[in-house]
Amino acid sequence: MTETETEAALSPEDSAGIRPGEVRGELPFSFDASIYFIGRIRTPWATRAECPRRGAADGPVCRLEIDPRWAQALQGVSSKSRLQVLYWMDQARRDLLLQSPKRDGTVVGTFSIRSPVRPNPIASSVVDLVGVVGLNVLVRGLDCVD
User: Fold this and answer.
1) How many CA atoms within 13 Å lie on the side-chain side of 107?
2) Torsion angle, CA of 58/4/11/87, rounded to 10 degrees?
3) pTM for the whole thing?
4) Domain housing 8
5) Among 77, 81, 55, which Cα is nearest to 66's?
6) CB atoms within 10 A of CB 142
């Protein structure tokens, strides 16, 4: 069975990719904010299905690759033991108002749960710092797709 077939068998979703009881909303046509991406996150997980639901302190070492223009902003990072990482979930859908996270038919509002499906897919993880090597920040405890 392929990965797609496995995911389909595990999640009773309709052709639009939503589970029973979930409700989609209309997204605004335009955005009213902008952000600067300062680098990339490298993790061992290529898909959401592979990704842990919560990062673990004893999980794999992940790498934050910082863009060279932000090099000076790394000053002092190596003296910390924990960091808060904000990141953009680029693969997340953004249109669900109600979700069924446990896949048991119970439906809750998107803002009441920790889910990658949100109107603004900004995520936050508090991670343990392993070290800083040049423009690479090595951490444990991330739970995001590469």
Assistant:
1) 12
2) 50
3) 0.74
4) 3-140
5) 77
6) 28
Take residue 138 and report the two structure tokens written for it: 């090595």
- Tally of CA atoms within 13 A in the half-sphere of 66 that contains its CB: 18
Pick from 30, 27, 22: which is nearest to 97 by CA? 22
Q: At 31, which CATH number?
A: 2.40.30.70
Tens of each residue's pLDDT in the chain, 146 residues: 344 443 444 455 555 678 888 888 887 777 677 788 999 999 999 888 887 878 888 889 999 999 999 999 999 999 999 999 999 988 888 888 999 887 777 899 999 988 888 888 898 999 999 999 999 999 999 988 88
Beta bridge partners of 131: 138
